[in-house]
Specification:
By secondary structure, the chain is α/β, with parallel strands linked by helices. About 55% of the residues lie in helices and about 15% in strands. A five-stranded parallel sheet has the order 2-1-3-4-5, sandwiched between helices. A three-stranded mixed sheet has the order 6-7-8. The longest helix has about 30 residues.
Length: about 290
């Protein structure tokens, strides 16, 4: 395929053996499918095998054996640490780790040190874009690491994303992801409150969204969530649990008080405690309906 040819150019030090995806959650499984369609998916792994996915699933040792690039997308820093503890004995100088889980800068530096000690290379690559964006290849990456490595992985990441920003250092990439998600969290809460306010005055949803679309407050997030809000569809594109985790992480690294962040954490915590942890984060509106 064209991507395989591009990889042969980008990784010019030897034969390309393909790519393994580590973590087959909502996003990882979509990426694995896209890589498979490009003919470069050598293997995949998930902590609990997902037999409903038509993907070659194997253990982590074999993922490293059959692939040159390992793209990690798991829940948090502890999950990455667990994965790397199993991968490190199998890493060699041929390997590249692309780490796309949402973590903090201190953990990213730790993982970079561990990986590079084996001779392998490490790129921090958090992203934004929920399930629909991943399905359309429209996720956005915030890359932290060496410029030459960013250039080399471009032919890979362009197949699962629409834009890639080289933000700077590992830490800067992790902070950029959390800064973007803080805005998503705050905008979501405001959207849910505004719609609840309008519904309370018996303004129907058609009129509300018609007016909002010509208001300065209209956003890409509103466009994404309008169908779900209209139909009370809470199937997860990105869950309450995950957004809550990211906001707690943002609080840990914040310098000074961020009132909106505190408010977001409170709202997400309440929704999780109410039993909505695995629902889409737009189910924040269910707390207002109560």
């Amino acid at each position: 395929t064209s991507l395989a040819k591009a990889l042969n150019v980008a990784f010019s030090g030897g034969a390309v053996m393909g790519l393994s995806v580590v973590g087959l959650g909502i996003i990882g499984s979509i990426w694995a499918g896209r890589y498979a369609s490009e003919g470069i998916l050598a293997a995949s792994w998930n902590r609990s095998p997902k037999h409903d996915l038509n993907l070659k699933q194997t253990d982590l040792a074999n993922c490293a054996k059959v692939a040159k690039v390992l793209h990690i997308c798991v829940y948090d820093a502890d999950s990455v640490r667990s994965v790397l503890n199993q991968l490190l004995p199998h890493l060699k100088d041929k390997h590249v780790i692309i780490q796309s889980s949402t973590i903090d800068g201190t953990s990213a530096a730790e993982f970079h040190s561990q990986v590079t000690a084996t001779g392998a290379r490490y790129l921090e690559a958090p992203f934004t874009g929920s399930k629909p964006a991943a399905e359309q290849g429209k996720t956005i990456f915030y890359l932290g690491g060496e410029a030459d490595l960013v250039f080399e992985v471009e032919p890979i990441l362009e197949k699962v994303s629409v834009t890639r920003f080289h933000v700077g250092t590992l830490e800067q990439a992790t902070v950029m992801k959390l800064a973007m998600n803080l805005q998503i969290s705050g905008i979501s809460q405001a959207l849910c409150e505004a719609l609840t306010l309008a519904r309370g005055a018996e303004i129907d949803d058609d009129r509300f969204f018609e007016v909002m679309k010509v208001n300065a407050a209209w956003s890409g997030l509103a466009e994404l969530k309008e169908p779900k809000l209209r139909s009370s569809d809470y199937n997860p594109q990105f869950s309450i649990k995950n957004l809550h985790k990211d906001m707690r992480l943002a609080k840990l690294i914040a310098q000074g008080e961020l009132p909106q962040l505190e408010r977001s954490i409170d709202c997400l915590a309440a929704a999780e405690e109410a039993g909505y942890a695995n629902e889409d984060f737009i189910s924040l509106i269910r707390m207002l309906e109560k």
